[in-house]
Amino acid sequence: MAKKRFHDSLWKPVGRAISDYHMIQEGDRIAAGISGGKDSLTLLYALSEIRKFSPVKFDLYAITVDLGYDVSLDPIRDFCREINVNWSQVHTQIGPIVFDYRKEPNPCSLCSKMRNGALHMAAQQMGCNKVALAHNLDDAIETFFLCLFYERRIKTFQPVSYLSRRNLMLIRPLIYVHEKTVTNFALFFKLPVVENPCPANHHTERDEMKKVISFLEKKFPGVRERILTALKNAQPNHLWK
Fold first, then answer.
1. pTM for the predicted model, two decimal places
2. Fewest beta carbons less than 10 Å away: which of 5, 82, 137, 190?
């Protein structure tokens, strides 16, 4: 009964995204990037449930890139055990490098590149052919506005993209799911969210875009879906990064 509560807002959009973009095939080895936030834990839970009932058989793993902060990741480890997913922790010093050593004025870009590099390398070493990322509908629109306002580009990320240097496919099964749905899902299922230790948390350009989009949604209800549909219907490849 509990899962039916989120049928139309989470399970159905996830299934539609997987189907629309052929995200999962027989025999895939999928590594989910798990930060410990609500989005990545929701992604992992959803994929673990799909794995149980899908006629398409695939293996699922979880990878957490430790940024070098003194934060316990035991809740993530225990949650992965509970849902029967193998979990790996990648130790790094990305946080201290970005904030203490380099003192980056705009830390998010470098941190993201280093974190993604560590995640992709770990997935490749584990023999995975795909990496699942927890970007949702709001993330796609925020990225579009970030590129438009700060980089003078009309771009956002693809639901599915290929990393030729790593021979990895990136998939984003939550691409049709609202962030509000993810928040409610994580609360309802009591997912073990780990507090984000990043010093820049809640003080980023992305947070500013959240405010802009929230304003637009109040002014024009349903604008999120219309923007995503416009991006989806835009055929030229230059609209995607």
1. 0.89
2. 190
